[in-house]
Amino acid sequence: MSTPRPTTATQPAAERPPAPPARTEPRLPGVLPLALVRARVELLGFLRERDAVFFILLYPVLMLLIFSTVFGSDGLGLVDDAGREVSFARYFLPGMVATGVMLSSFQSLAISVAVERDDGTLRRLRATPLPPVAYFLGKAGQILVVTLGQVAALLAVAALVYDVPLPDEPGRWWTFAWVLLLGSATGTVCGVAFSSLPRSGRSATAVVTPVVLVLQFISGVFFMLDQLPVWLQRVAEVFPLKWMAQGMRSVFLPDSALVLEPSGSWQHGPAAAILGAWLLVGLVVGVRTFRWRRRDDG
Q1: SS (H, E, C) 199-233
Q2: Which family does it belong to (predicted)?
Q3: For the segment 82-141, what is each residue's pLDDT rounded down to a tens digit?
């Protein structure tokens, strides 16, 4: 009768075979690297949609060309410190910069996120290891790149075609930077929050576009703000676009243009406060109402 071989449990510790190494799950990259990758994906997807590129990226440039052509070379009867007359192209440039920021951020996200929710893209993303923060930061990164490209095109057309002088004071460029960044961040957050309002991706454009158009007409983008009824001016003061446009006018227009401002001041403090308040409101509303699935998908 053969002697049974000792099992691993009964073998002396010195004779036991080494245990196989424990399997470790691969670690995901950090949130920031994932956000950068997601921003690249979002940007490539945006550039493939030629209609979106045209209406969002080139719309402000086209409107600047139209308004400057309609009003011609006539000026506003104002001169800057260098003795140059303020042209209509120079006056409308700040409003087009502001409306471009709103189109690139608020309108773009309010529509695209609603469409992604409707076609199941958000549901599939939620099932992946991608952190939600990386998804939203990727969206913000894409918006920032598009906005910078759009503003660069606007400034190039204004300077090269209509001889609009660009600021030569560091303080004005600092104002330009914080108004642009704060306005873009506010539009991005509010766009994500507003994306939960349309009932489907198909209805998103019909819901979002009228809001954008109304704000453009009452916020001093297409008309001089002091020519609007006082009650419309008060309504516009509630929303961010009016303050973005006014902040941009303080960058590109001389102080002599303050006579066209109802308040007689550029109001940088109130502009920062209103934009910051909308940023916080958008964050709170977005966190409480954002959905990864359609309403009829549970």
Answers
A1: CCHHHHHHHHHHHHHHHHHHCCCCCCHHHCCHHHH
A2: Belongs to the ABC-2 integral membrane protein family.
A3: 778 888 889 999 999 999 999 999 999 999 999 999 988 899 988 888 889 999 999 999
Q: What range defines the domain where residue 104 resides?
A: 29-289
Alpha-carbon distances of 162 from 21, 72, 99, 109, 176, rounded to whole Å: 70, 10, 19, 32, 20
Q: Give the C-alpha separation, 250 to 267, whole Å.
A: 9
Tokens of residue 68, six digits: 């400057």
pTM more than 0.70: yes
Tokens read off for 47: 């550039």
Classify residue 185: in a domain, yes or no.
yes
Provide the 8-state DSSP code for 263: T
Phi/psi for 89 (5° steps) reads: -60, -40
**Tokens at residue 97, please?**
């910069």
What's the CA gap between 152 and 147, in Å, rounded?
A: 8
Which of 217, 254, 205 has its CA nearest to residue 95?
217
Which residue matches tokens 């009650």? 231
**195 lies in some domain:** yes
Residue 264 zone, left/alpha/beta (φ > 0; ψ -120 to 50; rest)? left
